[in-house]
Design brief:
The chain is mainly α. The protein is built from 3 helices and no strands. It is 75% helix and 0% strand.
Length: 157
């Protein structure tokens, strides 16, 4: 029997190979963890944004229905306002979302402000008492559509 099983060259090769395999395994584990973290963040972002948009949509619909009910009851047009834009989660990486949807989501607050200004102008300057109702109905539809798209992105719709 050979007393020397391993030569120095074989020991060094085994140590190097073990180090390489260990480094590859560590990188694979880190890659899997990073993907899982990114998926969790994407799901959280989609759900949190969808919930905020749905709450905004409900607020818009309630305001429109209240104005219409007031008209039906008293035959006079009341007054309502376009609600403030929803607060979307700021602690997320929005780059995880499709670029087109991300653009619509992040610009929605600006669109709400434009609708507020337009409805206010139409109401006060042009005498259109239904301008706010028209605006809140349109914003409610957009908010619902974006919320539905977000939920569909994670398989909840």
């Amino acid at each position: 029997m050979d007393p020397q099983i391993w030569t120095t060259k074989e020991i060094i090769a085994a140590v190097i190979a073990t180090g390489i395999v260990s480094a590859l395994m560590r990188e694979a584990v880190e890659w899997v963890k990073a993907n899982a973290r990114r998926d969790r963040e994407f799901r959280y972002l989609c759900v949190a944004a969808a919930v905020a948009l749905e709450a905004y949509s409900l607020d818009c619909k309630a305001r429109a229905e209240a104005m219409e009910a007031e008209y039906e009851t008293y035959k006079s047009v009341g007054s309502t306002t376009v609600p403030a834009p929803p607060i979307l989660p700021a602690d997320c990486d929005w780059r995880l979302v499709d670029v087109t949807l991300m653009s619509h989501l992040l610009s929605f607050a600006n669109d709400v402000r434009k609708a507020q200004a337009r409805a206010s102008f139409e109401h006060h300057m042009e005498g259109n008492r239904w301008a706010e109702v028209t605006a809140v109905k349109a914003l409610a539809e957009r908010a619902d559509a974006m919320a539905h798209q977000l939920r569909r992105n994670i398989g909840l719709a």
